[in-house]
Amino acid sequence: MKIIRLMHGKLHRVKVTAANVDYIGSISIDSELMEKVGILPLEEVDIVNLNNAKRWSTYAIPGVRGSREICPNGGAALLCQPGDMLIIYAYEQCDRQDVMINGHKAKVLVADENNNIADFFEQSLISDNGKIQFQEKLEDA
Q1: CATH of the domain at 117
Q2: Which of 23, 59, 91, 124 is flagged as catalytic?
Q3: Is 59 known to be catalytic?
Q4: Which domain holds residue 62?
């Protein structure tokens, strides 16, 4: 069995609403946004700051539902400031052979300037006679 890591959920161009250096770590994310792309509380996420190219890994904790909160905490609060744009990725480990047979789906949410859902789509790997085809499918937000 060969294990590979594939993206399963992505929050694209979300805006930092606050940065709390005094909290003991993680990133607080509006629970509605987390659920939309399948990120679980305490799940490890990778983050890229589009304003300064800084990258880090942490874990997600649910913020207030509907608040559109994106708040890096602890040391991560020093890597960004309110208004910065982030990409937040969540990955899962998959059996490569299973992916080659059954494919894989990832959910992607693209945020507007207020962290509302501007676009929502699936990126899929579709098995086609032992070959993988990449496909994007726009969904209703």
Answers
A1: 2.40.40.20
A2: 59
A3: yes
A4: 3-139
